[in-house]
Design goal:
Blueprint: H1 14-27, E1 40-45, H2 51-62, E2 66-71, H3 72-75, H4 83-93, E3 96-100, H5 104-113, E4 118-122, H6 128-142, E5 149-153, H7 158-170, E6 173-177, H8 186-199, E7 203-206, H9 209-213, E8 218-221, H10 233-239, H11 247-250, E9 258-260, H12 283-303
Parallel strand pairs: 1-2, 1-3, 3-4, 5-6, 5-8, 6-7, 8-9
Helix pairs in contact: 1-6, 1-12, 2-12, 4-5, 6-7, 6-12, 7-8
Amino acid sequence: MKGKDLLSIADLTSKEIWQLITSATKIKQDYRRPFLLGKSLALIFEKPSLRTKVSFDLAMRELGGHAIYLSQSEVGLGKREPISDVAQVLSRYVDCIVVRTFSHQDAEELARYATIPVINGLTDEEHPCQALSDLLTIYEKKGKLKGLTLAFIGDANNVANSLILAASLVGMNFRIASPNGYQVKERVLSLARRFGSVSGATILLTEEPATAAEGADVVYTDVWTSMGQEAEAEHRRKVFARYQVDEALLAKAHEDAIFMHPLPAHHGEEIAKGLLDSPHSVVFDQAENRLHLQKALLLSVIAGIS
């Protein structure tokens, strides 16, 4: 994967996903050797971040490299200067770019002009690093991925898009319960079904949370209102009111099902208050695994180490 961009989960093969999971599993056993000594990572962030910023910064530092944080006011992608210019300048300075932006097209344009790897740290369409870390967490808890069933409850947002593609690539069944008008877009769905036809993964779209959760191995949810949608917040609270994940919904899943959320969480909205402290919750393991998976990713795209 040396020199490879990661803008979408669809940029990866099933084999590459497993290589990253295997590498991250080894790295988690205290892997701080300076394989990236002298290497630099640019973090271009238009959106606020806790986990993505801290995990990538620490990942680079613990591997011997250096991370440089660049806010929207400092870079101004496409506003202060053209994206193509930013890409070409940073390609002369650093070894890799992580971009967290509102527009997926901006990330694609940055990658088009950059001569170094570009990693999607979140866009309006996908969050591949989150999905990869989630697969690592599920594998740790369940010992496998193929044949498991993941139920996603809520908005078919960027996280859901990356998860459906990741699940279908590794043979994990995917169900998503969303209100009408907030379901997975046809472009993503058709791609996931194509992957599933090879891996054996099944995909179910429903408007009923209980249908999705029934017998699931993993129950997953995310915020009802993503960054950039704040004006829709009140309307979305009404639309998604019956899509809250609580203990009653979790009880429909397998007895040993795990509960996942990428954070930040809105307690009392998409999740019932106290749910993060449930014995089923692996949410903070998810958050930790961002660091380990991203170390594996940086080693792979910068140094070709798997």
